[in-house]
Design goal:
With 406 residues, this protein is an alpha/beta fold. The protein has two domains: 245 residues, 3-Layer(aba) Sandwich (Aspartate Aminotransferase, domain 2), CATH 3.40.640.10; 129 residues, Aspartate Aminotransferase, domain 1 (Alpha-Beta Complex), CATH 3.90.1150.10. The strands form five sheets. It has a seven-stranded mixed sheet, with helices on both faces. It has a three-stranded antiparallel sheet with strand order 9-8-15, with no helix packed on it. A three-stranded antiparallel sheet has the order 14-16-17. The structure holds pyridoxal-5'-phosphate.
Amino acid sequence: METKKPDRTSFDQPVNHSQILPYGRQSLDEDDCEAVIRVLNGDWLTQGPMVEAFEQALAESCGAKHAVAVSSGTAALHLACLAAGVGPGDVGITSPITFVASANCVAYCGATPGFVDIDPHTACLDPALLETACSLHAPKVVIPVDFAGQPANLPAIQNVAQRHGAIIIEDAAHSLGALYEHEGHWYQAGSCAHTDLAIFSFHPVKHITTGEGGAILTNSPELHAKLLRLRSHGITREPGLLTRNDGPWYYEQQELGYHYRITDIQCALGISQLRKLGRFVERRRALVNRYREQLTELANDLTLLLEQPGKRSSYHLLIAQIQGGAARRRQVFDFLAARNIRCQIHYIPVHLQPWYQQHVGTRDGNFPRAEAFYDGCLSLPLFPAMTDHDVDRVTHALKAALAYSG
Ligand SMILES: Cc1ncc(COP(=O)(O)O)c(C=O)c1O
């Protein structure tokens, strides 16, 4: 007997309170699975045609000239720093409200990670504070993070960074499909219109997934060529670059690179997922609207981190700031968890991590806005396959949690 598969595009399913509602998850359909199976049945599992096809589709989708797909967003950040020439003695500045990878990439290169506090309205790096930090530290790179899906103020950051000779790497792990406006024009996250390089992550909770995976985008042919070499051991086969040529098998390792390649299996999934990006982003935005409508009555207890004018967020995350401090946020978190609603906290400020305190010398209190943000933040469930009823389930539980903890 044929069993009917659940219709994953229907947003009107009944509520099941015993079901675990995660804060994020992938959305895969039959055609994603078929795309992967076609590669498994073919000749190339890795280093085949899917990688370049995915890179082209990604570059086109973001309006950048080049994309280099790699094994993770972290690998993308590491290679972007290496391509930017980050090395021992350099400083690389990012925001403390991010995943540790945005700062670790600087340390991987033997350089010193530094931080600039956030703009509390966006939780992105504050360009006004960047000016002072650049005067003090002359950073080699600045790594703004498009936090929660809203692009950082990239034109203002470019203005500061260029005057101080710093290269900009946009950490766009949260913002695939997002837009920002500058002087009457709209630009895509990852287009590198106001940055030198941009990176994405394709971890399952992100907008599209390849299982694990990432990419670096740039408009510079030189950076592109360097990234391709660094992705694969620093090896080149380009006849014009070889110091000698022993035959058709010959290659040279001319710099120290890494094995950060992605597979054709992953890229086939990436191509299939990228076709749905527009639909995924629209669904995320519709869910955010539903949350917003239902939570306005709680304005004294909770503020949502929403897009600012001149930004079109792709809402990787929907973050609520719970008024009343860390203890109340903890009560709300636990109340929801007991009802199988699994929220998350984004992020523990990076400068509070023990490794940073021991090796970089950061201290509690260094970035007070980031620490205040951390005390109240709560990431609510948000992913394209969520139903409208799932949102209602979260908002009802939130209202009860706030009443109980108030
Ligand atoms: C802002 C940010 N940058 C970088 C990364 C690293 O990406 P990946 O997990 O693909 O290595 C993440 C992952 O969560 C992230 O959130």
